[in-house]
Design brief:
With 84 residues, the chain is an alpha+beta fold. The protein has one helix and three strands; from the N terminus they run βββα. The radius of gyration is 17 Å and the shape is elongated.
Length: 84
């Protein structure tokens, strides 16, 4: 059976990683050109849950960068005022 999972690549060591490029309009907000996370070996328990978690993390970082670019923050996202 062949496992096909988008945004992944198998390294020569047999480990898989999740890779996605940052959107072009947000490249200046990130220090790297891609979002890369290790998924471990594909036959290990929890592979798909790690894949889904990486997708969620990517989506969260992109949405935070878009809000920062637009200047849209709610009070929970704003930095805390300095304590006296």
């Amino acid at each position: 059976m062949v496992l096909v999972v988008k945004q992944t690549a198998e390294k020569p060591s047999g480990l898989w990683c999740y890779r996605r490029y940052w959107p072009l309009d947000l490249k200046s907000h990130f220090s790297t050109t891609r979002f890369i996370r290790s998924l471990g070996r594909r036959d290990t328990k929890g592979f798909m849950s790690r894949y889904e978690r990486c997708g969620d993390e990517y989506t969260l970082q992109v949405s935070q960068a878009r809000r920062k670019l637009a200047g849209n923050f709610d009070t929970l996202d704003a930095p805390l005022p300095p304590s006296n």
